[in-house]
Design a protein that fits this description.
Helices cover 18% and strands 41% of the residues.
Length: 100
Amino acid sequence: MYKIVTIRTDYEGWWLFDDWKDNIIKEIECHDYNEMVKQYENLLERYQTKFTNEVIGKHNIHAFYNNCDLSYCEDCEEDLQIFYSILILNDNSIYTPLPN
């Protein structure tokens, strides 16, 4: 089974940390590959309209952000940019490469 998830983080490089699953804010379950691709493309299109900035990184992972969407970090005493990334999971592991 496939699952499309959106994660919200205040740092880049989230894939380097084991706790990235704690940042999941949205999940869409898909029963087969074709449904997953269709749902993924629809979500990608919605986010491309909703956010002003998009970065495409390793494994075709998209990260979206708006310049004014910041979160204050008390430990580092500065505002941090908030990023939203869309991932596909297959059996709870990141499925790569993501569709183009």
